[in-house]
Design a protein that fits this description.
single chain, alpha+beta, Heat Shock Protein 90, 7-stranded mixed sheet, 7 strands, 29% helix, globular, binds adenosine-5'-diphosphate
Length: 167
């Protein structure tokens, strides 16, 4: 992305269709991990609102969050995806909450940095430490934000927002 070799193909997209498709794609992976995976779409209106996104890049963001949630959870855990619409600015909010190992106060401010990984002894995840840094760049490119809330031993929530507009 830094060398501008990363191309985005933006297209007007229904947020509701996108959310349902993203959720459905990871039902099998979560089920195989023994995790209860739920979708909670809060808005009862606003179906006509659109996102202008590159759907493949947004899937990359979502997949990274879900795979981390699976990786840092145990069988028997829960992953809940909650979807809201915020006003002023009008934006879609997707929050993925897991019941996994969580992140310490000390590590939390750094997880969106490149190559950052929490000490091996605890996570032993084998990841690159790049996933969330790339996710942040993708979300910011779309005009949104991404952030995390967590406590060690108490699970983790990763949220991201994307601007919405009228048809
Ligand atoms: P990796 O490829 O190592 O998973 P990421 O950039 O995706 O890299 O994540 C950075 C670090 O943030 C992870 O190594 C892990 O320590 C922490 N992390 C991310 N998501 C979670 C989660 N859901 N639960 C606990 N820790 C997490």
């Amino acid at each position: 992305m830094e060398t501008k070799q990363f191309h985005f193909q933006l297209a007007p997209t229904s947020w509701l269709t996108m959310v349902r498709q993203l959720f459905a794609k990871y039902e099998l992976d979560t089920a195989n991990a023994g995790i209860t995976y739920t979708l909670d779409i809060v808005p009862k209106q606003g179906e006509d609102l659109l996102l202008t996104v590159d759907p493949d890049r947004i899937e990359q963001v979502y997949a990274n969050i879900i795979y981390n949630a699976i990786k840092f959870s145990q069988s028997g855990g829960f992953i809940d995806v909650r979807v809201e619409i915020r006003d002023e600015p009008c934006e879609l909010l997707i929050r993925v909450t897991d019941t996994g190992v969580g992140i310490s106060e000390e590590d939390l401010p750094h997880i969106f940095e490149r190559f950052y990984k929490v000490s091996k002894s605890r996570s032993n995840s084998g990841g690159s430490g790049l996933g969330l840094a790339i996710a942040k760049e993708i979300v910011q490119y779309h005009g949104g934000q991404i952030w995390a809330e967590s406590r060690l031993g108490k699970g983790c929530s990763i949220s991201f927002s994307l601007p919405l507009h009228r048809v």
